[in-house]
């Protein structure tokens, strides 16, 4: 990705090892599993910030994906060690924007952008918790 991204509001890194069940018949990570990696990154970022997705759900809020754009650059394979960087790029009243990058050493495997909306149990948009708005 050659464009320069703005500075993130927050950033988190997570080490991943590709499990066999995440791969296809050629031992490469199935493209859909990258979405699971991104979710793990968001969950662990929240935990590192001092809250948890479980606490949000217990308070009646849910964070749901409303947009996702993924760019595949290379293929990760079974047993690869990967680094997932999750960047929180923007915080608005009811949504979060993230940018993700997964590297194997210095090689960019995939990058993506998402918009995550905060909703209540009925699916109606709700204001993000103050701790996220303070970012």
Q: Treating each run of at least 4 consecutive H or I residues as one helix, how many helices?
A: 3
CATH T-level fold name: Thiol Ester Dehydrase, Chain A
The ordered H/E elements are EHHEEEEH
Mean pLDDT: 94
Would you identify the CATH architecture? Roll
Q: Please identify the structural class as seen in this structure.
A: alpha+beta
* Arrangement of strands in the largest sheet: 1-3-4-5-2
Report low-confidence residues grouped into runs of 5 or more. Answer: none
Main sheet: strands, sense, barrel? 5 strands, antiparallel
| Global morphology | globular
CATH class: Alpha Beta
CATH H-level homologous superfamily name: Hotdog Thioesterase
- What is the tally of beta strands? 5
Beta-strand residue percentage: 35-45%
Overall structural domain count: 1
Radius of gyration based on Cα positions? 15 Å
Provide a descriptive summary of the structure in words.
This protein is an alpha+beta fold. The chain has a single domain (10-133), classed as Roll (Thiol Ester Dehydrase, Chain A), CATH 3.10.129. 19% of the residues lie in helices and 41% in strands. It has three helices and five strands; from the N terminus they run E-H-H-E-E-E-E-H. A five-stranded antiparallel sheet has the order 1-3-4-5-2. Strand 3 and strand 4 form a beta hairpin. The longest helix is centred in the N-terminal third of the chain and has 16 residues, at 33-48. The protein is globular, with a radius of gyration of 15 Å. It starts with 9 loop residues before the first strand and ends with a helix.
């Amino acid at each position: 990705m050659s464009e320069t991204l703005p500075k993130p509001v927050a950033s988190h890194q997570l080490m991943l090892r590709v499990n066999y069940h995440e791969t296809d018949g050629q031992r490469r990570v199935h493209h859909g599993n990258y979405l699971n990696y991104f979710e793990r990154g968001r969950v662990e970022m929240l935990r590192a910030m001092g809250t948890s997705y479980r606490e949000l759900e217990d308070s009646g809020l849910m964070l749901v994906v409303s947009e996702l754009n993924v760019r595949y650059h290379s293929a990760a394979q079974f047993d690869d060690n990967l680094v997932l960087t999750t960047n929180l790029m923007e915080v608005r009243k009811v949504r979060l924007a993230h940018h993700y990058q997964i590297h194997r050493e210095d090689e960019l495997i995939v990058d993506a952008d998402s918009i995550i909306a905060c909703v209540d149990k009925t699916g109606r948009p709700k204001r993000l918790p103050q701790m996220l708005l303070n970012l």
